[in-house]
Amino acid sequence: MRILGIEGTAWAASAAVFETDDPDALRSETGRAPDPAADHVFIESDPYQPDSGGIHPRESAEHMGNAIPEVVETALAHAAARHDGDGPVVDGVAFSRGPGLGPCLRIVGTAARSVAQTLDVPLLGVNHMVAHLEIGRYQSGFDSPVCLNASGANAHLLGYHNGRYRVLGETMDTGVGNALDKFTRHVGWTHPGGPKVEKAAEDGDYVELPYVVKGMDFSFSGIMSAAKDEADAGTPVPDICAGLQETVFAMLAEVAERALSLTGTDELVLGGGVGQNARLREMLAEMCDQRGAEFYAPDPRFLRDNAGMIAALGARMLAAGDTLAVEESTVDPNFRPDQVAVTWRGADESVARAHTDDGAIRGAEATVDIGSEEVVKRRVPKTYRHPELDERIRRERTKAEARLTSDARRAGVRTPVVRDVDPVDGVIAFQRVGDADLAERLGPEAVRVVGESLARLHEAGIVHGDPTTRNVRVGTGPDGDPRVYLIDFGLGFHTGHVEDHAMDLHVFAQSVEGTADDAAPLIDALEAGYETIGSEEVIARLREVESRGRYR
Ligand SMILES: C[C@@H](O)[C@H](NC(=O)OP(=O)(O)OC[C@H]1O[C@@H](n2cnc3c(N)ncnc32)[C@H](O)[C@@H]1O)C(=O)O
Ligand SMILES: Nc1ncnc2c1ncn2[C@@H]1O[C@H](COP(=O)(O)OP(=O)(O)OP(=O)(O)O)[C@@H](O)[C@H]1O
Ligand SMILES: [Fe+2]
Predict the structure, then answer these.
(1) Which mutation among 266, 375, 441, 488 tests ligand 2's pocket best, with the greatest number of atoms within 8 A of CB?
(2) What is the SS3 assignment for 290?
(3) Which of 87, 257, 310, 361 lies most in the core, judged by the most C-beta atoms within 10 Å?
């Protein structure tokens, strides 16, 4: 099979030919990227480089208009040279259908339709974000990894479950690359800023910046304003760059680890242009190493925007018969990865694995020793994090967890009794509660109580910060009545903001959607439980959070 791929969502005008009958041809046996000459992918790219400022959609579309026909011609010439003369030179035309800049996408779509019609071969409409993560999966040979997409306009954690890529967590505002690019624009550097931040950080000393994660979601706006303020106040820019890298990438490593912990998976792949950053890769590799998981990052030509990943996924889609009729092939600037019906993977495959309780558990943040009456939770140092940041996070979270676990109980929510706290070493001893994590006993009744408990917390001005199906314990009371306990308040805080309350519900819903067989009735139960005590305003805000298009 030989597939032409076309990419042009924002800056890279790119065309590629992917050629093989062996779906595993991209696989790297050594854990390193295969020899480019032997990996069956030919890529021709022409990047758009703005003279000043960031990417201008109109200029970028102009670039696509000029460059796409040329790169496509080069790729088709490559295909023709390898063609034995029978039938069309390629078997299908795959193109980036979205997400991306509308004017650019329309040029890509038009080019793809015209080549497909001229050659009379099928059209394959590829989701650019899914392509970013699938390429790493093909190369790694992992079955069902957690995927961290760290690209310009996006940042999210995805896992395949129930026929779709579920968004386990994502940025609440800008993409990670765009955040770095905005900072470098502020200090007068040309686009793209990411590589310049990496270079400058080599000579910088870490400065402290805000660190914001909410379960597996995260936000960059606070850290970016703080970084700009530091620059305006005269802090050396290389120091800010070092602070940015240490903070932003530690956040990504932390949420990736939380996704591994939630799903029980021990495989992580990286995708997206920011994945070219050596410090990010180093942190992720170290995080995985520390928890005994495997990590794979494709080589740079497959991380940044490129048509090779589009063609490689297009080949799988064609093999699955997932073609697109020309009259239905409009592009979609807001195409989310979880909108894609994944036809090329087995319906039973899943990122979620069964857990075993073997006395010592490794959560995302801590190791937990389970005794018969008592559990001891230790926030062990994370070597991937800068030592100052690591120390600050462990101390603050240990204190918050001990305090909020008790505050929550006073608000009428079941939580374990705190028996001992050592914030310096990051150790808490708790009463052992429940018989299993909610993840193992997922049902509407328990989830309804979670909704009720979160509402009770919120009424008391507390947010949990990380309510997932692994941070709820279920058991039975003396009369056989079901008991539901909330644990792991380390990301919690006191707040009356509706937005923070809605985020708690959103985080829990994402954890259910990423792992449950039938999520809908569980989400209904969550909201029904919440509504018995909580405010309607929070549910309304939840709808708003869910509908936010996050491609900025
Ligand atoms: C929708 C699509 O158009 C978009 N693509 C995109 O953003 O291009 P990508 O090639 O995946 O990523 C580009 C970003 O990657 C950053 N970048 C490149 N090299 C970097 C490095 N060494 N360190 C940090 N960031 C880097 C750039 O600054 C830029 O923000 C996306 O995937 O979100
Ligand atoms: N008080 C408790 N009683 C019974 N089991 C507990 C208790 N506290 C923790 N556990 C068990 O240990 C696991 C990890 O605990 P916890 O969630 O607090 O750690 P963590 O490292 O913060 O995890 P993560 O960040 O991945 O949610 C829980 O999922 C649960 O199975
Ligand atoms: Fe991209």
Answers:
(1) 488
(2) helix
(3) 310
- Residues carrying an active site annotation: 466
Do 389 and 467 fall within a single domain?
Answer: yes
Instruction: Respond yes or no on whether ipTM tops 0.85.
Output: yes
373, 507: one domain: yes
- DSSP code of residue 274: G
Question: Which residue's alpha carbon is at the smallest distance from atom 29 of ligand 2?
Answer: 470
Our mutation pick for probing the ligand 1 site, out of 178, 191, 274, counting the most ligand atoms within 8 A of Cβ, is: 274
pLDDT, tens digit (0-9, with 9 covering 90-100), for 430-459: 999 999 999 999 999 999 999 999 999 999
What pLDDT shows up at residue 551? 36
The predicted model scores a pTM of: 0.94
Going by C-alpha positions, the residue among 517, 533, 547, 514 that lies closest to residue 451 is: 533
Of residues 202, 206, 197, the one with CA closest to residue 386: 206
Domain count, the chain: 3
- Could you tell me the CATH number of the domain that includes residue 422? 1.10.510.10
Instruction: Please tell me whether residues 216 and 169 are part of one structural domain.
Output: yes
Q: Which residues line ligand 2 (CB under 6 A)?
A: 258, 261, 361, 363-366, 368, 370, 375, 377, 416, 430, 432-434, 437, 466, 470-471, 473, 487-488, 490
Residue identifier of the C-alpha nearest atom 2 of ligand 2 = 432
pLDDT of residue 38: 57
Distance 10 CA to ligand 3 centre (A): 8
- pLDDT at res. 356: 63
Judgement on whether residues 478 and 502 belong to the same structural domain of the protein: yes
Judge whether residue 295 has pLDDT over 50: yes
| CATH code of residue 243 | 3.30.420.40
* Residue 552 belongs to a domain: no
**Cα 454 to Cα 504: distance, rounded to the nearest angstrom:** 8
In DSSP notation, 343-375 reads -SS-TT-BS-------SEEE-SS-EEEE-SSEE
345 found inside a domain: no
Domain, as residue range, for 103 = 2-133+302-339
Tokens of 526: 């969550």
Question: Is residue 346 assigned to a domain?
Answer: no
Judgement on whether residues 428 and 543 belong to the same structural domain of the protein: yes
Q: CA dihedral defined by 86, 88, 90, 95, rounded to 10 degrees?
A: -170
Surrounding ion ligand 3 within 5 Å at CB are 151, 305
Q: What is the pLDDT of residue 552?
A: 35
